[in-house]
Write a structure and sequence with these properties.
The protein is elongated and about 110 Å long. Helix 13 links the parallel strand 19 and strand 20. Helix 1 packs antiparallel against helix 14 and helix 12 packs parallel to helix 13. The protein is 29% helix and 18% strand. The protein is an alpha/beta fold. The longest helix is centred in the middle third of the chain and has 19 residues.
Amino acid sequence: MGEEGYTVKIWGPSDLNLLVGAMKSFIPHATMVHTQSFGVASTSDAASDGPAPTKTADPIVLVKDEVVKISAILLQPQCSGRSQIKPGEMSVIYIFELPEIMGKFDPKKAAALGLKAGPKYGELQHGKSVKSDRLDIMVHPSDVMGPPVPGPIVFLVDCPTDSHVEDLLSIECLNGYYTDVSGTKSTKTVNCVIHLSPASVVSSPNYQKWMKKFGSAKHIMAGHETKNLEVPILKSSARISARLNYLCPQFFPAPGFWSLQKHNYLASDATASSEGSASKTCERISAENLLKFTLRPHAQLGLDRSNIPTLVGQSEVIDELHSEIPEIADAAQHVRQLWHGFKESRKELTPSNDNGVMIEEPWLTENTLPSCLENIRRDDLEIVLLGTGSSQPSKYRNVSSVYINLFSKGSLLLDCGEGTLGQLKRRYGADGANNAIRNLKCVWISHIHADHHTGLARVLALRCDLLKGVPHEPLLVIGPRQLKRYLDAYQRLEDLDMQFIDCRSTTESSWGIFESDKESNNDRSSPESPLHFTANNESMKDISGTLFDRGSRMQSYWRQPGSPVDYSAYPFLKSLKKVLCEAGLEALISFPVVHCPQAFGIVLKAAECVNSVGKVIPGWKIVYSGDTRPCPELVDASRGATVLIHEATFEDGLVEEAIARNHSTTKEAIEVGNSAGAYRIILTHFSQRYPKIPVFDETHMHKTCIAFDMMSINIADLPVLPKVLPYLKLLFRNEMVVDESDDITDALGVAS
């Protein structure tokens, strides 16, 4: 939006300023964001530049023009023994009122009152009185106009707790919108009430009593509805998921929402019956994706279900695929044979001799496995690519997030772009996603750009809710120091139950100092401890001319002295060591990369184990690049990696753009993996100009695969991974270039 020069105006209660102020650390400077907050600030630093604060019971007019009047009524919890409202406790009711439509002009009545056809007809229709042409009387608009049609009124209600309901029932300024129980008409008729309130609040007797006050208004229950997961809003994206699942179910399991369909049909029936018995005068409608309530024209006032997506069966999608690509059936059979052949030949695979000697292309021999995969189990590790696109979500690729599933030992998230929670629900279903959130051990964020972390607060808040009343430790969040400011501000509005560690405290040199102090019993956590400067940028002194765009701020940034060790992080590092041990991990190491200030990659190293015959098996090693140009730090960190997950934002022909934006091309990413001797390379973070599959050269792809959203790679299946790529290319053979036609068609369909 900043690049396009758009201006954004945001209204909200006074605490909104806390959030928007913190967001400025990652919102592009060119973006013009104007906040207009209202109500009495709950904190002294939340100044308001919007309408002057008024009493809570009085509506606050936000917008009033010829199109609409928008008002807000503040809602606060009624807590006995407490006089001050905490940040984040204030809620809002928004009221949208459209102007009334004048009645129809009746020319017969005008003629009967002595008026001639002409300009006076227009004046009357504009509300002006005129003198009769034939009679000595004044003609008023009410004499010749039909009764006006009241403008529609919509309420948007967020009543988060039962204590807010008490305040809701006491707001006197809403009386003019109510219909008495006896059926007496109110001065204003509300047509629709949209409820964002949670089900536990909506089902309370007091809240239902309040709902009945609106008479015949439609009540749309738009709280978090599990049933909306069962029908994907983007059909083309769901179709791609179904096709990938058909071709290679091992890497593309059936989406979690398919398992919800039967369950939710039963649940929705039960909900409908309970809603029906709740009230005969209060019509409740469960919100659905793309459900509309038409306000104008008046003749069409009411619910519009025409754009609600319908469920497309998997068999229908596969029949369409067979018709479009007849040879895909043989391809799916070949992929199944790959797995069957791999299982048969697994006994013949010989582990490599990890003697530290660098061998060019050490994995070209199919019968060679890295020794860390010897005796590997399917419940050791699964890598789930939740988001594989860059910059902003698209219909086919969400923004960055990698879910590291360690099964019974917990899980980690590497980056957490917006929509990450939704992706977890699509992959595992609602209950499975909740379990995944409960079992998180750590979240690691690569850098401050919004497409890598704006889904984090929602994940943290949900985990806090899920673990209420259950003994647990705060979740460790590792990220760039700018992220802490945002999370600290958000925590003033909603409990995130987390502890923050700066990525710089988890670099190899910082870990070394921590371990050295630990061995010498040197407690550095006191404020008086001197700062120790690390030389973590030495390897970047000789920067290649192709590494940065000329004049880039990164050239000077990487020549700065190292950052001081934060000894106050020592208690959190001790917690992190404990968490890593419980997860079966030997190390979590952040390393600086070349993208923006405070950008990092990460190394995850599993602990070694001993097999049944006493042989020591080294642990696997995963490296995630984050966003970066190819750089020595990344190559060094990737030495001998089992899996390198590397960004490949641009195709090979756009290397100049990659340099200008501090990203990598496909070829550069593969060269980093080859130089480091990585066993497998997974390319991700593709520009959204490649909506379905990026442009790539197959010449050097023998150890590489292209990532897709929801792709789930079990460590036991790594030997097969690159062999699937040709079949994926067949699936998208007609879609290797930018394809915006589907997006345009979908957008037009929704707009109409």
